Amino acid sequence: MNNSNYISFVQDKKLIQLHNNEILHIRSAGDYIRIITPERKYITHSTMKNFAAMVNPNAFVRVHRCFIVNIRKAAIIEDEAVQIGGTLIPISKTYKAGLLQWMAG
Fold first, then answer.
1. What does the alpha-carbon distance between residue 18 and residue 83 come to, in Å, rounded to a whole number?
2. Tens digit of pLDDT for each residue in 40-73?
3. Cα–Cα distance between 87 and 84 in angstroms, integer?
């Protein structure tokens, strides 16, 4: 786990560094990861396991095998989904307990 306020990754042979506050959510897409911000989408070759280890656990929670969300950006948290930046992201049964634990403090 990482307590840093930034994550770094490579896209198109360029090193990108984003502050936690810039990121809405992270989504897996096969062997690639999409990092979604309000302004743009980034794509890098990596795994969810690697990104889960890179993100700050005080800001990010894995809610599905395909999604890590910046929980501070959540507009609505429902029983089976979280809404962030107008996107409805599913919460799987596997990761729901972790989300509830994070919310409890």
1. 21
2. 999 999 999 998 888 888 899 999 999 999 999 9
3. 5
